[in-house]
Design a protein that fits this description.
The complex is a heterodimer of chains A (324) and B (555). With 324 residues, chain A is of the alpha+beta class. Chain A is built from 9 helices and 6 strands, in the order αβαβαββαβααβααα. Chain A starts with 19 loop residues before the first helix and ends in a 22-residue tail after the last helix. The chains are: A alpha+beta (324), B alpha+beta (555).
């Protein structure tokens, strides 16, 4: 037998429901805490959603946040935040800062004048400074972007609900979507907790998490459906454990390859997309967890109709040409 | 193991070969790009090529595919502007232009309507007070004669003007249908003029699109100075020649009815009171060029078209000795005194320009004035250096990601892991090939999508291999176990990929910009990975099984 790297032993008999009150309770608690965090502390919304301007500065001289702040204080700008950006991929003499300005009261559009004034003020204290990225979003557009973002997450969830319902049973669809909503809520909660910047790209990451999590869950459901046809009398709980154990090696394997490629992106992909990649990294972990501990629990709780008639979606002779 | 039919094998082989060939140009991005530019330029010049173009042409053989992925603004650098056209501006202009006609029509009806004057009203509404309200019916009828039927698909039977009586006032507005038709025209004109201006600036492949009712999205990749572009697009460039009533230094002076108080561009604190209705306007220009005046200062020379030249000639003949103002976007550039009758319809605008300003103004005047003001709702500018940094980071991440995933797959599945990695490489080639041939735009999140695809693409192989392991454990012969693995894993692969695709499609339709780029690469990645993981891996394994005929296999 050749040597193989195995994160999961060949045969496992993990009872995924043993601690179900603890795991399910933890998930429920995490979701509730996330919602409370978002409502009370709030998200650190980026300009996509709040309006305003971000300016990336780059210079060969080190960033002096104090001097920047002083230079900008003279200008009539609201809600200025300045953060220095550090990244292992930067050159030794590459000093980057991110400046964010809130939207001006009562102004619908972007004002090129204030950007020009800001650039002028910074150039005065550091002649070597350049502005590799300037982004401005007016409050009118940012309001629409929030709506679009919510719409996209809702539409994706609804689409998945309908697809899983058509391919499986409604209990599976509910379990699947509950797991997805859990993943998204907890991820958003983490962004609120650590006050990470939440912008449009994070919504794309959330959608990707949806896609990943549903992928993971559907694979287990697919196997469960197969086992339902195979073992007619096995109790549902036992069968779910069997299914999860049978697919565990695959679940962990895929989670690992995805996690590894994202980790590489997180380390080497540059600071511009780090938040985006972080959301997806976290999503892979929580998506795998929810596949094992949330989706199945809900299906078990709802029960599966195991009448003697074959299920519409299970064709008993689907694999008949392969003799087992 | 059952063998696929020959034609199927050939087809799979051909697709893989195409993938490698069609993705190849992207490895030589700069050379292929200059080659493609040369081809386009030579075509434009009807096949005449300069030596430099010949040289660029030779950089890349003609018989190889030459489609490239477009690099998004975040990778190439450039400017992204989302502008809103103030459509209501045009309603106001239309009503202001209508007033003289209405006044003339009322003059003909003087005995019925008495004296008329224009009463203050919101922009886009013309309110006319009649001294004899008894003549209202006749007045309304006369104004309706000025109205024309609206020519749109939906507005059949409607006329351009809505005229109603309000006490002694007659209130004229554009009808609903005419407003819609005007909006459409305004947007078309704005798009056209912006396109002209951006083309004059000579940048490559700009995107200029209408979005929704009143928005225009402008994306210009690779532009050197974003401020310049904004100046080019953000300026209305509305040029008019107006009679001057008087000059003043009081910024708050009331200009009086139908007059405007405008600042001087050159002298701070000097204001001109001018008549609101221009003598001639920029629309009547046929040409504008940067030039120099007699004192060798930069200036812009212009020429009027037939009607413009006549109007200008008539006005100058009648007003010798009086000043007139050259007004650009609400500022008086200069206000020369008319020395003599100016026939021939050409002239020169001076006003302490720099050479650059004169050149830019000439471009703007040539391209025409925007029919309405533009307001910027969203503005993103990425410098080319940041884009280059992002490309470098994306490349590094993709290469390391591939190595890590490959190492992990080989460590986990041995020889079969190697097969999966081969299929994964084909997948990457195919993904890039498809992105290039459909002319998709690669963005930084798009690169993230490619790296993520690498991690998730092996999932189908993992599903198959895990299944094969199970079947082998159950005591199946190698060939049978492989068949069963592929067959039984297929339903799970299908379900998981369809849901993934669903999410990506939703992202594509709802998302914008960078999110879209991500959606495009992930959805194409899902499709290609299904193909490579199922068919290409299978073909490789079939070939291996046919070649070595192993008694036992270890997955």
């Amino acid at each position: 037998m050749a040597w193989r790297l195995k994160l999961v032993p060949t045969y496992t008999k993990i009872d995924f429901f043993r601690w179900q009150f603890l795991t399910f309770g933890l998930s429920a608690l995490a979701s509730v805490v996330s919602i409370i965090l978002v409502l009370t502390v709030g998200l650190n919304l980026g300009i996509d959603f709040k309006g305003g301007t971000t300016i990336r500065t780059e210079s060969t001289t080190p960033v002096d946040v104090g001097a920047y702040r002083e230079a900008l204080a003279k200008l009539d700008l609201s809600d200025v935040t300045i953060t220095e950006v550090n990244d292992p991929s930067f050159r030794a003499d590459q000093h980057v800062a991110q400046i964010r300005i809130g939207p001006k009261e009562g102004e619908e559009a972007v004002t090129p004048e204030s950007i020009a004034a800001l650039e002028g003020a910074l150039t005065q204290i550091d002649p070597a400074i350049t502005f590799p990225a300037v982004e401005s979003v007016g409050p009118k557009v940012s309001g629409e972007l929030i709506f679009k973002a919510l719409l996209s997450v809702a539409a994706a969830s609804a689409g998945i609900l309908i697809y899983v319902w058509m391919r499986f049973e409604w209990q599976f669809a509910v379990g699947c979507v509950a797991a997805l909503v859990h993943d998204v809520i907890v991820t958003v909660g983490v962004f609120a907790l650590f006050q990470l910047k939440f912008d449009l790209s994070i919504v794309a990451a959330l959608l990707t998490i949806l896609g990943y999590s549903v992928n993971d869950t559907v694979v287990i459901f697919d196997r469960l459906r197969e086992n339902l046809a195979k073992y007619k009398t096995m109790p549902l709980r036992e069968m779910m454990n069997l299914t999860a154990n049978e697919t565990l090696s695959r679940t962990i394997m895929t989670a690992t390859t995805t996690f590894l490629s994202l980790l590489v992106l997180f380390i080497f992909g540059g600071d511009v997309i780090r938040g985006f990649v972080f959301a997806m990294l976290f999503g892979v972990v929580i998506g795998t967890y929810s596949t094992l501990y949330v989706a199945k629990n809900i299906v078990l709780f709802l029960g599966v109709d195991r009448g003697d008639k074959p299920k519409k979606s299970v064709t008993p002779d689907e694999f008949a040409k392969v003799d087992a | 193991m059952t063998r696929s039919s020959l034609w199927k094998r050939l087809l799979i082989g051909l697709v893989c070969l195409w993938g490698v060939m069609a993705s190849l140009p992207n490895a030589f991005y700069g050379r292929v790009e200059s080659h493609n530019d040369a081809v386009a330029e030579i075509e434009k010049a009807n096949g005449v090529a300069t030596p430099e173009q010949e040289l660029a042409l030779a950089d890349w053989p003609n018989w190889l595919p030459s489609s490239l992925m477009n690099l998004g603004l975040d990778l190439r650098g450039g400017a992204h502007l989302l502008g809103r056209v103030e459509l209501a501006d045009v309603y106001k202009a239309r009503m202001d232009a209508l007033w003289p006609d209405v006044r003339d029509a009322m003059r003909d009806l003087r005995d019925q309507v008495g004296a008329v004057r224009r009463a203050p009203a919101p922009d886009g509404t013309l309110r006319v007070t009649l001294s004899e309200p008894a003549g209202m019916a006749a007045a309304i009828e006369a104004v309706q004669k000025l109205s024309q039927p609206v020519i749109t698909l939906t507005g059949v039977g409607q006329s351009t003007l809505d005229v109603v009586a309000d006490g002694a006032d007659m209130v004229i507005t554009l009808s609903e249908a005419e407003q819609r038709a005007t909006d459409d025209r305004t947007m078309q004109q704005s798009l056209e003029i912006i396109r002209n201006r951006v083309d004059e600036a000579g940048t490559r492949e700009p995107t200029i699109q209408r979005q929704g009712t009143d928005r225009i999205l402008i994306q210009v990749p690779g532009i050197g100075s974003a401020a310049e572009l904004k100046g080019l697009i953000g300026t209305t460039a509305k040029l008019t020649f107006n009679p001057v009533v008087r000059t003043t230094t009081n910024a708050n002076e009331s200009p009086g009815a139908r007059n405007l108080l405008l600042p001087s561009r050159e002298q701070k604190g000097v204001f001109y009171v001018i008549e609101e209705t221009p003598v001639v306007s920029g629309e009547e220009l046929t040409d504008a060029q940067p030039s120099f005046d007699q004192n060798n200062r930069p200036a812009v020379s212009f020429r009027f078209d037939g009607t413009g030249a006549r109007k200008f000639g008539d006005y100058t003949a009648a007003n010798i000795g009086a000043p007139f103002a050259i007004v650009l976007d609400g500022e008086v550039i200069s206000a020369p005194v008319i020395q003599s009758h100016i026939a021939g319809g050409s002239g020169i605008i001076t006003g302490s320009f720099t050479v650059e300003e004169a050149t830019e103004l000439a471009v703007l005047l040539r391209a025409g004035a925007l029919p309405a003001k533009m307001e910027f709702l969203e503005e993103r500018t990425i410098g080319p250096e940041l884009g280059a940094d992002s490309i470098a980071a994306g490349k590094t991440a993709a290469v390391i990601g591939l190595v890590v995933v490959a190492g992990y797959m080989i460590a986990s599945y041995g020889l079969f892991g190697t097969f999966a990695v081969l299929a994964l490489s084909v997948n990457l080639f195919l993904l890039v090939a498809i992105l290039s041939s459909i002319g998709a735009t690669l963005t930084l999140p798009g690169i993230a999508g490619i790296v993520l695809t690498m991690g998730m693409a092996v999932d189908a192989n993992v599903l198959i291999f895990e299944r094969v392991r199970e079947e082998l454990r159950a005591g199946m012969a190698p060939g049978r176990a492989l068949d069963a693995g592929f067959e039984r894993a297929f339903s799970a692969i299908m379900d998981s990929n369809v849901t993934g695709l669903l999410v990506a499609l939703i992202m594509f339709f709802i998302g914008s910009g960078a999110v879209r780029g991500f959606a495009v690469t992930t959805s194409i990645g899902i499709l290609t990975s299904m193909f490579t993981a199922v068919y290409v891996t299978r073909l490789i394994i079939e070939l291996y099984m046919g070649w070595r005929r192993p008694k036992a296999i270890v997955v």
